Amino acid sequence: xxxxxxxxxKTAPPAHAVAETTSGAIATLPQENRRAGLLGVTxxxxxxxxxxxxxxxxxxxxxxxxxxxxxxxxIALLGLNILTGYNGQISLGHGAFYAIGxxxxxxxxxxxxxxxxxxxxxxxxxxxxxxxxxxxxALRLEGLYLALATxxxxxxxxxxLKSKFLERWTGGVQGIVxxxxxxxxxxxxxxxxxxxxxxLFFVLIALILTRNLLRSRIGLAIxxxxxxxxxxxxMGVNTALYKSLAFGISAMLTGIAGALGAIxxxxxxxxxxxxxxxxxxxVGIVIGxxxxxxxxxxxxxxxxxxxxxxDKISNAAPWAIYGALLILFMLILPSGIAGGVRAMTHRFAxxxxxxx
Length: 356
Known about the structure:
Blueprint: H1 23-26, H2 31-58, H3 61-86, H4 94-112, H5 116-138, H6 144-162, H7 167-170, E1 176-177, H8 191-215, H9 217-227, H10 229-234, H11 239-265, E2 267-268, H12 275-288, H13 295-313, H14 318-332, H15 336-353
Antiparallel strand pairs: 1-2
């Protein structure tokens, strides 16, 4: 006998259907509680912004430098998350775009005397063009095949940077040394403090542009290709164009991060951009949270500070500690840190709304 029909089966919504910020949880509250929730979110955002601005005045120069790198990695993770988290294309070669952005900034500053602030958008524009062109042949590849293709890019680029053909510009294995810029307009900031604020400015721009992009028709098309590629194509979405565009935008943000990283570190060399950098960026978006804007900051903090913590725990086997911490994070927070924060915020909001 046929089974009885009990009506449509209810399934849990996908992870990407949950709101990106705490406003998703607030939206489920009744009208009288939403205002208080929004005020709480605004207050929290204001406090967080104040803490970011207070960092360069409360810490020594070396720790300011570390937090500057956190901001740099946050931009790179935003770019990789657009490609992998929102568009579903796996990349193991974004360290190559980071290296291209870094070398463009270094070459323009060292060889041609271009102002450091101008090299950042130039690096982004060049990486946008290269990433967009690379996206077209990558259209024939999906999943692990695309990951291997991008992995090959990450493996090959450091060797190309060492070649005699490019040594005139790249400096070969010796690399290029960059002079750290001073604060302009007579600002009473040392170079480390100024570079922190300079990088923070680009982080804010990247966050705003990424958020607006994902809410636009382009962003909806990018996400639709990840979720239902056949349905998206049937609805008239040009999947080839939007996949290449996602690759280009992702490479642009990563190139901007590379330029900022080169200015902060004051040095570029081929060995600084090994395959391990690409893997580290992938670890950052998974730990921070796939398809999450806020996860870029969480992931950047992880990849900057956790290896140092692991080294302090065990000098003999720091990578074993690092691997154990990765496994622990994946067991406790399978949807990343941003997913865990969203879940806790939603649970707190619902519990507060539940009548006693």
